[in-house]
Every structure is written in structure tokens, then in C-alpha cells.
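Lab notebook, bench 4. We co-purified these components, and the gel suggests they stay together. Before we commit to crystallization screens, I want a quick structural picture of the whole thing.
Request: model the full complex, all chains together.
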Amino acid sequence: MSDTATAQHEDSHASLVVDNKKLLMWLFLGSDCMFFGTLISTHLIYRKLYPESFEPTALFSLELTSFSTFILLMSSFLMALAVSAMHKGELKSFRRNVIGVIFFGLIFLACQVYEFAHFVHEDLTLSTNTFGSTFYLMTGTHGVHVAIGIFWLICMYFYSHTGKMDAHESAVDVEVAGLYWHFVDIVWIVIFTAVYLLEYVDF
Amino acid sequence: MSHTDTETSVPPSTHTSEMEVLKPERSQLGLLRPDHNKSVIIDWLTTVDHKKIGIMYGAIALFFLIIGGVEALIIRTQLAIPENDLISAQRYNQLFTMHGTTMIFLAVMPLNSAFFNYLIPLQIGARDVAFPRINALSLWTFVAGALVINFGWLLQALEMMGLFATSGPTAGMTDMVPSVGWFGYAPLTSTDFSGVGTDFWIMGLQILGVASLSSSMNFIVTIINMRAPGMKMMRMPVFTWMSLVVAFLIIFAFPAITIALAQLMFDRTFGTNFFNVAGGGQPILWQHLFWIFGHPEVYILVLPAMGIISEVLPAFSKKPLFGYAIVVFSGAVIGFLGFAVWSHHMFTTGLGKIATAAFSLLTMAIAVPTGVKIFNWVGTLWGGRIKFTAPMIFSLGFVWMFMMGGFSGIMHAAAPADAQQQDSYFVIAHFHYVIMGGIFLALVSGIYYWVPKMFGKMWKGNLSTWVAILVVVGLNITFFPMHFLGLLGMPRRTHTYLEGFGWESYNMVCTIGSYILAFGILLLLVDLVRCIRSGEPAGDDPWDARTLEWATTSPPRVYNFAKTPVIPARDALWAHKYGPENQKITEEDDHGHGIHMPSNSWMPLIASIGFVPLGLGVSLMQAGIPFMGYFAIFGLFLIALGTALWALEGPGGYHLFPGKNIA
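Here is the predicted assembly.
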């Protein structure tokens, strides 16, 4: 995570606009856009290629998914508060908000696990049809992103107890984690629209 | 700069007794960091020095160049005469698959990477890349991917020696070497038609993707953030510029194949339906996803070559590059357009008239920025005081040969013509002119140009002339007749052919040419070894060159520049040597802080090693070998362990003071 010892030493005179770590994260997110872009395109291209008897809306629970979407959005809000707290050096407020993000993230993951289990119970598996394949791979990849984010934030939470975190050194680390978290959130909004809501529109 | 004024660098001081001895410090984990290690092996395994990483990339790439070359020679030997039975059809499939995969991913890309690593920090006046440990991770992950892809050959060899049998628990281990072609079209890659070799191929490419992505992000940050003061974007050497474009191409193109490979892996291992027609999947999706990656990949291979040419031609014409800004701009345009032409690989799949016409036009359009570059190179030569040194000869060869590859490329851009040429030897001729005649000659030019900088040794004698003659003549004899073979209808990827189609003599000529070419490459390697082992000292600036890397010692010290240079102009060293007084390179005062160096680390190596069990485990799990799922999980555990320790050990770093603790 913090590989920039030399960087920080040398950066002082470069035409530095964005911190090294932050720029790296932006580039990763640019690349990640293409990952999710490919997954979501595959899902949309394969839409309606499954047998007509299969109806995704019969499986979906829009209430549950709306709830988990709302939870994820709120976690982003808390993440923003955590970043702001770190900038001000308010470690306690930072911890409180990060715990909130982790908790909300876990609720989102639990909803996803419940949803997957429910779908499998209703006989939709990876190999049932193209919907199963594209849906699980796409939402699963998103779930893995959320899980990695949660793991990252848990690490940060414990790190904040070592006394090595301060507004000057660690604000950028928290900001980078925040960028990642917001991105994962935005991707979910696209998935929620293109995968769930689209099925309720008649076209 | 202090070093440029003397012809040869001052030998390191022998008064080591006066020096403070550097001792490794403990990391935040309490472990001793592998810095200042006496063991050369440990030093290289844990290094984060971009120069050592670059040299390792280069050495491994040359090793795989030989492997891929031997595969090509076997292919050509098999095709020398009609109805040859030197190798079986299946072995032939394995050979052309591994030849393509090896040459693209394990020879040319890492050779490009070798130059990126070695040169970018030197060219922009930085101490190292932005994330030195990520750089080490990229190198070792690349090695892990190469091992996984080639693991099938090892099993095959063991089987031939009677040490491995495909019976009992390993009964599923058929078809162990990838044999689906370098673009692995669905549905040939399904479990119905191909064996565990395809899984090695999938996992190997996936791991190589991790290496390419991480190193590209690293280089973009390096180029944007780590430039020395005064090194504005439009003052950067063109090689660095082209590397920047390539890094962006990689981070936006690789995700498409990563997802395509993941889908294929899920199809094979978990029974999904992405490319399974019976389950509603569409194999054509693979072609789209593959070529959305695959066409930018062509520019990922060629743009660094164009960067090398743009450095060598001005250096030996004693003129600045003609139209620097437009050369940079056309490189960027090629990068953008590279994403918009993928379907020209699919004209015969029935895209529809509109799509075919659009992609046809876009493909012709991409010839424009390429042509602009060629004219600029010719403009650079025009009126210059041309010196026919070894790098120059290869660069001139590039301009000529690459243009021929480009011309047949424009022929492919016309969809009706392409329909005739698809899957014939005409295509083979085209892309070998681009890759061998273009990219490879440029890379050899780069080797001849920069090895004196990398090793501080000068080339001996004029063996390079023989290399140039043999390689250029050899590649023309090998690949030019393939145009005719293609027009006469010889299909690619068939292991033999019947007499009487008029293909016999052309094929024999191609085969003879390939041996001449191979001999030329062998001489190149001999020349390289001779130079490194017993060349005369090269001095800092043996070519009277233009860019910043020649302003430091040969080979550069571990810290590149003792004091950060301040850059007053484009072609910084040239301006420093021959320009007006106000264009001298000056040095920034370090205020006694010394030189901050990053610490070596074991963690990138540990994390990368984890990719081997992960890749092999998933592949062998698909083949039904027991417990392989756990082996894959063990790999994941290693990766997680390496990464966690990496984060916890802290970045470290130490300070060097010339004259105090270093010579």
C-alpha cells in the first residue's frame, strides 16, 4: 500500500498534481471500468437468449435489492465522512464511520448471499442458462470487490489503533480506499439499473 | 552534469575502509530487510531496482525468443516438403499455438518491458519508478505466468521419458500443451474439443495480465509524477512518450481478455454457458472480446518499437527528430484508433454491411498516423549527417520492412480483399513483416543502442553487420514467398499439404529462409555475450546521443543521478553539449539529505510465487486431478500472505551519501 518512500522524497519538485497512490487508484479504477463494462455488456448482449419460459422478474425481489442498494449508497456516505474525519485528524470519528461502512458492506454482502441462495433454490445455477452464467459472474465479481473493500477497511480500522495513523500521513491512504469504495458503489448502481430495473421495462 | 564532461567514468574508489558500511535495517515486522546483501542471488531476487528488473526482463525475454524460435523452426521444417510426417497434426497445433503465444506474450512484450524498466526512469531523470515493489511484483508474476503456460511442455517431456502417465488419477490429463491457436477461438476451447493444455493457457495468460496491468499503472504514475524538474511532457524523449501511450492501451485493453478468459475458465471448470451453444451461448462473443483486446495488443507491441526508432534515427542523423510534436500526437492517435478497428479481424464472420464498411474505413484511417510517422522519420534522415552504426542499420531496416507489413495491412483493410486473404498464408506474411521486420528489428536496434549504457561495454568488431544481413535477408526469404503462398490458397494452421498446388518450391524457400534468420539471431546472441563479457569500456555517451539517459554513467549507479538534474530543453543532453549557455543541465541541491533509496523486499517474490499453484491448481482441478482445488487455494493463500506482509513491513528505504557511504 505504501510503496512511495522514494516517491514522496522526490515528488517535491515534480509537477505533482495528484498523489502517486491516488493516481494509481484512479488508473486501476479506469481499468476496472473496462472489467465491469465487459461483464455488463456480456449480460446485456445475452439478454433474452435464454428460453422464453425463463422470467428473471419472477426470481428478483425488487424490495430486497432496493434495500441493499440503499444500504450500499449509505455506506458510501459514511465513507465520505470517514475520509473527511481523517483529513481533520479526528481518529475517533474516523473509526466510528469506518465501522459503519464495514457494517453496511456486510449487510449488502449478506443480502447478496441470501439472494444467490434463493436463486439456486429456485433452480437457477451457473449452468442453467445464459442468464445464470452472466448474472452470477457479474454480480459475483462485484461481490468480491465489496468483500475486498471490507477486508481493506477492517485492516485500516485495526491499523488506526497502532498509533501510526495521522492526518498528515494517512489521509491519502484513506482517501484511496474511499475512491475504491465509491467506485464499487457506482458500479452497483449501473448493475442495479441495467440488470434488475431493465427487466421490469417492456423492451 | 559532472559525469558528462569526462569521456569515461571515474572508477569506484578503492578506499572502502574510509567508507561507512551500509547495514540492513529491520522492517516494521522486525525482520531484517534484504538490503546490502552480499549474496548476489538474494540481491537479484529481492531487488526493486528498475535497472536490474529491466535486465531480468530482457534475459527472460531472450530465453523465450529462443524457445519460440525453435518452435518456429520445427514448424518450418515440417512444412518444407509436401506430406511430411516429421510431427503429428496435434503436435503441429501445439507448436503454432505456443509459437504465437510465446513470441507475443513471453518474448516481445517482456523485451519491450525490459526497455521500459531500464530507460523510463533514466530518460525522465527519476531515481526509480513510482512503486518499486510493484515493479518487482510485475516481473515475478510474469515469470509465474510463463511457467504456467509452458507447464504442459514439461509434463509432455516427462511423459516421453516415462516418468508421467495419463492413467489412474491423471487420466484426464490429455492434450497437455495448448493447441487452440494464440487467439483460442470458441468453441474449439470447450472441454469437448480441447484438454488441460487450454487450462494452462487460460490461467497463464490471466497471470501475465496481472503482470502487465500492474506494471502499466506503475509506469503511468512514474511518467506523470516522477519527472525531473523542467522535464515537461513535451520535452520527454519519444520512447517515454510511446511507453506512456502503450501503458494506457494495456490498462484499457487487457480487461476485455481478462473477462473473456474468466468466462472461458468458468465454462470449462464450472459449466457456465458463455460460449456453449447448447446452453444458449454465442461463440462469436469470444471473437469480439478477444479482438477488442487483440487489436490494441498489436499497437502495444509496435508503439515501443516506434519509440526506439524515434530515438535512434535522430541520434545517428545528428538532427532533432523531425516534427517531434506530430510524432507524439500520431502515437496517441494510433492508441485511440487502435480500439476502434478490432472487427477487421472478423470481416468473414458476417458482421453486416454497415459494420464491415465502418471497420474497413477505420482500419484504413489508422494508416494515416502511421504514415505520418514514417514521413517524419524520413524527414529526420533528410539532410542529416548519417552514421551507419549497428543501431542505425537496424532502424533503417525497420522503416523499410515495417512499411511493407503496413502495405499488406492496408490490403486487409479492404473487406472484399480480406475475404480472400482470411486464414491464408498472406495473413502470416503480413503480420510477420510487422512483427519480425518491424518490431523485432526495432528491438534489435534498441539492444545495439542501449546495451553499452546498460553494461558499460562497447560492441566488438562488426559482427553486427553480419547479424543485420542475415536477419534482414533471412526474414525476407522466409516471409516474402508467403504472400504468394497465400494468394495461391495455402491455408494457415494445416500441418501438411499435398503436392501439385504449386506450393512446394515456395515452402522450401521459406524453410531455408527461416534457418538463415535463425542463424542471424544466434549470431546476435553471440555478439551480445561477447560484448557483455569482453567489450571495451563504453564511456558515458558513446554515440554522442541526445537524451538524458546518456548523461549519467554507463552502467548507471543504483541511484541513477547523484543529484536530480534540472532539464532546460528537449533533447536535454544534446542541448547541454552543443546548445547555448542557458540550456545546460543543472543539478538540484539536495541540502545534505543524500540519496533516498527504496529497500529491497522478499514480498513481491512471495506473492508472485503464489500465482503458480493458483494457475496450475485451477487447471488441474478442471482435469479432474484430486485435491487440486486445495492447491489453488494454497496459491491464493501465498498471494494474500505476500501482500499482507508487504503492507505490514512498511516501505523502508535508506540514504546514500556519495563520498561517505558509497564511492
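Residues 390-534 of chain B form one domain. Worth comparing against the SEC data before the next meeting. Residues 89-124 of chain B form the longest helix (36 residues).
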